[in-house]
């Protein structure tokens, strides 16, 4: 028995080759290289280089194909034999009206074929029964012992197989009285067998893929109605010549009725029943006697007669009796006993019309069958009919690549119940061979095989006019590994065949799915094949080498002779598999491999191969033939001749075509063709000689290549004729090759004639051309050998050697060792010529001189020897000898110069120059070079250290030392190097000391540095750090001189000068005592400036201190003033030196500052008057008819003030938003203190408003300024701000004197007295309705007598801040504001009458006083007088009250928020 699926052992792996890129560029050359190894396995695998990845060129959308259908268990040879056997035995029983049911034994289907074969091998049925060896039969069928299985097998054999074997052999079964199928209880263990004929090329209309499933399931029992309706079922009721079988199992309801119906055809309805069955027994004397059967048998026969529910018809065999015609009676005679009696038991065969007694049949029939009946002779003729040739059916569905892939992946995933990529290849391989060897399981797959690439397009890019190829595709389209290119390569034989042979010259495409297989086969004409897997899952291959091809055929014929009896060329049909383990067990060497995507598989000539696909994939294959294939191709033709198989092409035609153009052949191919042509010519001579001996002398030339192949095929062996053929004038439809001249026809030899392609004289001529081509290499090789080895004593010229190399290239000689020697010799000779030309031209001065060749003297002598030893003559050798002579003369002169040292440097240098022009390195030249380098270096050291020379740097010294290290040593050189090293060490030490002085944190005094510099001056080296230290010391001395000059000048030094000196002194690496004093002076000056800034400048002021102290010279221009204020807000103002129009140098002169200040005062006054006039002309924002115009006022926020809330500056008369500027606070000025002022003294209310452009500072009191001046006097430094403060103080004191003088005049004193009386009177008047007094708070003092000393300030806050902090808001302030608002209607004025003569001076003083950035009490007094002399400004008061209300409301909200935050923090 064959091994089971679980026992499948994979064969060993085939060789795998991985070529390098250099090897991969020559496909056929590489295959020839690996052939000695790979041919031993039959197949091999080639992995291309990793980056060789051809694009897939098939148009996927247009690719449609119809696959083949493959039933796996019908592919395997032994399994197919078993299935064929079951077909025949099933047909045997079906003809007799019974359906075969295959029994189950030990839970597996009984192998009837193996049972039959084993019974025959054990000696036959009788011998086994006699020796009781059925247990051995069970053992050989691999059934377990001890279960009485042998008896069960005997029973099954007797019932099913034995009757069939009896008919097959024709033996008598006289002793056999078995009725194997008359027990329906036993039928239950059988399974039906419904196998039709094996599949043929065309699909069967009544065939389905699930035949095996039907075979293994019990058939449903048909009813009587089904039989009546279906004539096919009626036929199945026939009981034939064998034992009766109850296939349908129908039981009659009324046996009496069935019996009557059976006998209805008899004339006498009341006639007797059929007699009992007669059993024929053999007696010892050989006589035959008839005995009645037992009663049981008779009764059973009666029952069986009742099985037929119908009367006999013309479609059934009926009894022939009661015929009065004698001739008719004589025609119905039993063929067994030759008697015609008992005609009621006589049966007529529907096949051959022979008659048989039912009791004469072997075995006898117990009753008369109904329906169509055939005799044993017809039954055997039908069963022994040879089966139809096995082939693959074509599927009925057309697929695209996508639809086929979806079907294939779904099938595999469902079959293995896992994703397709996770199924191991080993599992698929074992399952494949299990299914192939299985009779029970019928798995059907589809395989898109042998798809023509010409029609559907190759997977490789192809160069044609259909589509434009990219450069990458073009590269792969011309590659030799492209399967469209490989068959037609120059070294390939198939390139000489013009026809596009599909599958051989034109690739075939293969689209596979899991289990789809290709069966054991060899290629047509035993050619090579190459298969490339473009993509998809692997393809598993099995291969057998060509040496074992006949052994494989013998094993398959031995194991399955039945298949080869009907199909001798079965292995050429590609439809038969056999388990590799079976072949290996019979000694056939088998190898395997898994071909993955991107890999090639090569099969060698006559190497059997088969395999299957692991899953969905796409492959492409083609044949190719090389020179080494030609002998195999000739042997294949002889093999085809014996098998009478058609050829794909004519081998003789191929050889002759190549022989006709020998110059186009590769040399190896020409030699192989010559060998084949010689054998072919010799055979043709022999065959034509035999033709002459037969007496055939007629002949005519025929161009066979122009005939279709089917018109020049031998009618005997089917070979395609080319050189010659035998034809007949009387039988023009056929011809034969000269090997079968006796098989043409029976006509006379005189009517037969030879049709030939070439005469016997032409063939040797063609052979000679091939020989010349093949032997041309030997002739050429002899010439090359003589030339290279100088056998005739004459050296060839370089041109002659080049001609030999050119001949080899033109005649395409192989790359042999001799050709390589010739190429090497030419390369060496050309290199020598080039080198000699370079050597000679290197000695010639001028532009044509070649760059330094630098050949040594030894190399020159070796080069001369090399040129002398070359096998070619070169005229340049004389020039090289001349160069050698010059070099030797120069060498002698150089030795003489070196021997007479010390020579002059000029002489040595001239010798060196001459040596360089030679182009050859002479040993003495190196010694000369060393001497010259020593002299140069010593001279350079001497010049560098000379006292009169410029001092060299440390880098120069180090460079000299480095250069001295490369100079050849000598006493002078060593001494100079030691001196240089010592000098360099000392210089570096002083340089390091100077560096520490320059970088040290503790600065050294000038005396120390001077000592260091003085000591370093003696070193003859330029030291950068010493030089830097010297420069620093010079700067320090200059700095000290500057300090002395400033300190000893006529005036105190300016702060800027001191700051510059301090900055310079700090940067010097010298310790300076004066620097500390200067730093202290600068620090004191900065402290005074900071104190003055805090005194004058507001918080976050946009003005500098100097700008505040100086008069505003451009006050007359409103736009200039406003834009400059905006520039200062944005930080764009340039510098303080521009304020007075003075340069930085002018600011150092006090006189210039005073003059400029005075001029600025006058400009400021004139400017403010001009500005007042301009602003007075602008429309009031409070007027309802105000319209936007260019003359409108612009607030500091950049907007036009309009409506309520606008205030007018008392100085510049311009308008501003009250919320954008600092405004006076009425409550601060009205909080009384004893003695308090009456509330109705409105002229004392603080309503004066100066805009931020006019009031630029805090305006401190004069007493504070005088304190600053006292501190300034103690400073030893002059500041521009100090000068400006002095001028400002003088201006303020001057104004104060004039103001006091004006207030002390008689008219003004009287007005002041009157105003005082009025205030007292208002205070003394009782007013019951007067509300309580305001809360006590600091307020301005009442107007006092005596010049207005300690008068209240003009503004509530010096810094001009308008926002009161929320913490200082009193609880009753809201009611105070309401009180003031209620008093507005009671305010009346003016309370004084000011004459114009009095008012004008006061107003002028008031204007000058407002320009001062100083707070003076006289200014406030003058302002009150001027206020009292005019009506109260109710609009301004209301505006101020509204602004204060809004401020208080906002402050109260902020206060609450702060309080809430404080509580949350607590």
Relevant terms:
34 strands; alpha+beta; 1466 residues; 4-stranded antiparallel sheet; 9-stranded mixed sheet; disordered N terminus
Structure description:
- A hairpin with a 2-residue loop joins strand 5 (101-105) and strand 6.
- This protein is elongated.
- The longest helix is centred in the C-terminal third of the chain and has 32 residues, at 1434-1465.
- The chain contains 49 helices and 34 strands.
- By secondary structure, the chain is α+β, with helices and mostly antiparallel strands.
- It starts with 15 loop residues before the first strand and ends with a helix.
Concise account of the structure shown:
By secondary structure, the protein is an alpha+beta fold.
> Can you summarize the main beta sheet?
9 strands, mixed
Question: Which value, in Å, is the CA radius of gyration?
Answer: 68 Å
> What is the mean predicted local confidence, pLDDT?
75
Q: Trace the largest sheet across and list its strands.
A: 1-2-20-17-22-15-14-4-12
Rough shape? elongated
Instruction: Report low-confidence residues grouped into runs of 5 or more.
Output: 1-5, 172-224, 229-330, 846-851, 1132-1137, 1328-1371
Strand content: 5-15%
Structural class, from secondary structure content? alpha+beta
SS element count, helices: 49
- The portion of residues assigned to helices is 40-55%
Strand runs, count:
34
Q: How far is it from the N-terminal to the C-terminal residue, by CA?
A: 103 Å
């Amino acid at each position: 028995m064959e091994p089971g699926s679980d026992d499948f052992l994979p064969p060993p792996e085939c060789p795998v080759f991985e070529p390098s890129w250099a090897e991969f560029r020559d496909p056929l050359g590489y295959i020839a290289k690996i052939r000695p190894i790979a041919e031993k396995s039959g197949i091999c695998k080639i992995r291309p280089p990793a980056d060789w990845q051809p694009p897939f060129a098939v148009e996927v959308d247009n690719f449609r194909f119809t696959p083949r259908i493959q039933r796996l268990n019908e592919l395997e040879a032994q399994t197919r034999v078993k299935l064929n056997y079951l077909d025949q035995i099933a047909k045997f029983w079906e003809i007799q009206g019974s359906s075969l049911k295959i029994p189950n034994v030990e839970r597996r289907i009984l192998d009837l074929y193996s049972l039959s074969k084993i019974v025959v091998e054990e000696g036959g049925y009788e011998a086994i029964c006699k020796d009781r060896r059925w247990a051995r039969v069970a053992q050989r069928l691999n059934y377990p012992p001890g279960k009485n299985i042998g008896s069960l097998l005997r029973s099954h054999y007797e019932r099913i197989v034995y009757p069939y074997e009896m008919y097959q052999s024709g033996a008598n079964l006289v002793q056999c009285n078995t009725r194997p199928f008359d027990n329906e209880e036993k039928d239950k263990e059988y399974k039906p067998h419904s196998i039709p004929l094996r599949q043929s090329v065309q699909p069967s209309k009544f065939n389905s893929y699930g035949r095996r499933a039907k075979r293994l399931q019990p058939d449903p029992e048909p009813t009587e109605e089904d039989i009546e309706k279906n004539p096919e079922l009626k036929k199945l009721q026939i009981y034939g010549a064998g034992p009766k079988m109850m296939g349908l199992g129908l039981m009659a309801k009324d046996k009496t009725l069935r019996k009557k119906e059976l006998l209805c055809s008899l004339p006498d309805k009341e006639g007797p029943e059929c007699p009992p069955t007669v059993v024929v027994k053999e007696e010892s004397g050989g006589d035959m006697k008839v005995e009645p059967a037992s009663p049981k048998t008779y009764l059973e026969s009666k029952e069986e007669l009742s099985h037929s529910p119908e009367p006999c018809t013309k479609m059934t065999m009926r009894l022939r009796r009661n015929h009065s015609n004698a001739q008719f009676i004589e025609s119905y005679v039993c063929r067994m006993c030759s008697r015609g009696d008992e005609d009621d038991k006589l049966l007529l065969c529907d096949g051959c019309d022979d008659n048989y007694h039912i009791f004469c049949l072997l075995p006898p029939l117990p009753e008369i069958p109904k329906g169509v009946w055939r005799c044993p002779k017809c039954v055997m003729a039908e069963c022994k009919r040879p089966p139809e040739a096995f082939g693959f059916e074509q599927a009925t569905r057309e697929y695209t690549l996508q639809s086929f892939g979806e079907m294939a992946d779904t099938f595999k995933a469902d079959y293995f119940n896992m994703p397709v990529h996770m199924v191991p290849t080993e599992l698929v391989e074992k399952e494949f061979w299990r299914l192939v060897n299985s009779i029970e399981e019928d798995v059907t797959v589809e395989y898109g095989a042998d798809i023509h690439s010409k029609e559907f397009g190759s997977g490789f890019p192809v160069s044609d006019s259909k589509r434009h190829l990219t450069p990458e595709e073009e590269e792969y389209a011309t590659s030799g590994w492209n399967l469209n290119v490989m068959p037609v390569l120059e070294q390939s034989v198939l390139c000489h065949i013009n026809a596009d042979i599909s599958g051989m010259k034109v690739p075939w495409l293969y689209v596979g799915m899991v289990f789809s297989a290709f069966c054991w086969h060899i290629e047509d004409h035993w050619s090579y094949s190459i298969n490339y897997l473009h993509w998809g899952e692997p393809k598993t291959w099995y291969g057998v080498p060509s040496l074992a091809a006949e052994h494989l055929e013998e094993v398959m014929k031995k194991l399955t002779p039945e298949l080869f009896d009907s199909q001798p060329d079965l292995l050429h049909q590609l439809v038969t598999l056999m388990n590799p383990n079976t072949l290996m067990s019979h000694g056939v060497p088998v190898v395997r491999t898994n071909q993955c995507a991107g890999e090639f598989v090569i099969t060698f000539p006559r190497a059997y191969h088969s395999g299957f696909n692991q899953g969905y994939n796409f492959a492409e294959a083609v044949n190719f033939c090389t020179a080494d294939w030609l002998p195999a191709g000739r042997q294949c033709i002889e093999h085809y001749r014996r098998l009478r198989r058609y050829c794909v092409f004519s081998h003789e035609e191929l050889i002759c075509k190549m022989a006709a153009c020998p110059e186009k052949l590769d040399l190896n191919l020409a030699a192989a063709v010559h060998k084949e042509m010689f054998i072919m010519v010799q055979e043709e001579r022999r065959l034509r000689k035999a033709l002459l001996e037969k007496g055939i002398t007629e002949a005519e030339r025929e161009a066979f290549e122009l005939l279709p192949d089917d018109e020049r095929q031998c009618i005997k062996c089917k070979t395609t004729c080319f050189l010659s053929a035998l034809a007949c004038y009387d039988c023009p439809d056929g011809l034969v090759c000269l090997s079968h001249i006796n098989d043409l026809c029976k006509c006379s030899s005189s009517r037969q004639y030879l049709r030939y392609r070439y005469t016997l004289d032409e063939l040797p001529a063609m052979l000679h051309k091939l020989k010349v081509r093949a032997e041309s290499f030997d002739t050429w090789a002899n010439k090359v050998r003589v030339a290279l080895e100088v056998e005739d004593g004459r050296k060839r010229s370089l041109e002659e050697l080049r001609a030999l190399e050119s001949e080899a290239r033109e005649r395409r000689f192989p790359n042999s060792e001799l050709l390589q020697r010739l190429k090497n010799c030419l390369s060496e000779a050309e290199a020598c010529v080039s080198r000699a030309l370079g050597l000679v031209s290197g000695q010639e001065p001028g532009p044509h001189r070649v760059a330094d060749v630098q050949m040594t003297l030894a190399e020159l002598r070796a080069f001369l020897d090399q040129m002398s030893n070359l096998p070619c003559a070169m005229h340049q050798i004389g020039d090289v000898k001349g160069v050698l002579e010059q070099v030797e003369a120069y060498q002698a002169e150089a030795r003489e110069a070196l021997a007479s040292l010390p020579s002059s440097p000029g002489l040595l240098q001239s010798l060196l120059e001459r040596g360089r022009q030679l182009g050859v390195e002479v040993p003495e030249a190196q010694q000369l070079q060393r001497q010259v380098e020593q002299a140069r270096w010593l001279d350079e050291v001497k010049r560098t250290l000379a006292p009169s020379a410029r001092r060299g740097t440390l880098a120069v010294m180090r460079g000299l030392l480095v250069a001295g290290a490369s100079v050849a040593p000598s006493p002078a050189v060593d001494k100079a190097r030691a001196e240089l090293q010592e000098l360099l060490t000392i210089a570096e030490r002083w340089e390091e000391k100077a560096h520490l002085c320059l970088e040290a944190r503790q600065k050294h005094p000038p005396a120390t540095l001077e000592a260091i510099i003085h000591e370093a001056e003696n070193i003859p080296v330029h030291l950068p750090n010493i030089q830097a230290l010297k420069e620093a010391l010079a700067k320090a001395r200059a700095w000290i001189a500057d300090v002395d000059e400033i300190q000893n000048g006529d005036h105190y030094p300016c702060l800027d000068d001191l700051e510059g000196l301090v900055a310079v002194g700090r940067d010097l690496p010298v310790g300076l005592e004066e620097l500390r004093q200067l730093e202290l002076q600068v620090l004191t000056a900065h402290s005074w400036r900071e104190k003055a800034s805090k005194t004058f400048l507001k918080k976050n002021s946009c003005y500098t201190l100097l700008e505040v102290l100086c008069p505003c010279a451009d006050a007359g221009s409103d736009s200039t003033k406003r834009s400059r204020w905006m520039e200062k807000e944005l930080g764009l103002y340039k510098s303080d030196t521009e304020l007075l129009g003075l340069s930085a140098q002018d600011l150092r002169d006090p006189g210039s500052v005073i003059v400029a200040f005075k001029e600025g005062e006058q400009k400021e006054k004139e400017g403010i008057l001009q500005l007042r006039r301009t602003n007075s002309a602008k429309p009031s924002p409070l007027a309802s008819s105000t319209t936007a115009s260019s003359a409108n006022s612009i607030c500091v926020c950049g907007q036009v003030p309009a409506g309520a809330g606008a205030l007018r500056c008392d100085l510049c008369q311009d308008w501003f938003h009250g919320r954008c500027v600092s405004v006076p606070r009425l409550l601060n000025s009205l909080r009384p203190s004893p003695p308090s002022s009456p509330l109705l003294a409105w002229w004392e209310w603080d309503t004066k408003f100066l805009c931020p452009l006019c009031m630029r500072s805090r305006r401190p009191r004069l007493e504070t300024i005088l304190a600053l001046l006292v501190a300034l006097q103690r400073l030893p430094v002059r500041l521009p701000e100090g000068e400006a403060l002095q001028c400002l103080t003088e201006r303020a004191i001057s104004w104060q004197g004039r103001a006091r003088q004006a207030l002390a005049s008689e008219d003004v004193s009287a007005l002041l007295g009157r105003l005082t009386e009025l205030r007292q009177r208002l205070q003394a008047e009782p007013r019951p309705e007067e509300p309580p007094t305001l809360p006590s708070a600091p307020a301005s003092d009442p107007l006092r007598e005596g010049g207005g000393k300690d008068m209240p300030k003009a503004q509530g806050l010096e810094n001009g801040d308008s926002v009161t902090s929320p913490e200082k808001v009193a609880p009753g302030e809201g009611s105070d504001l309401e009180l003031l608002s209620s008093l507005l209607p009671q305010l009346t004025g003016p309370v004084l009458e000011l004459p114009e003569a009095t008012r004008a001076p006061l107003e002028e003083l008031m204007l000058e006083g407002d320009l001062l950035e100083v707070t003076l009490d006289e200014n406030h007094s003058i302002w009150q007088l001027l206020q009292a002399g005019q009506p109260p400004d109710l609009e301004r008061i209301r505006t101020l009250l509204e602004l204060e209300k809004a401020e208080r409301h906002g402050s109260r909200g902020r206060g609450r928020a702060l309080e809430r935050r404080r509580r949350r923090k607590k």
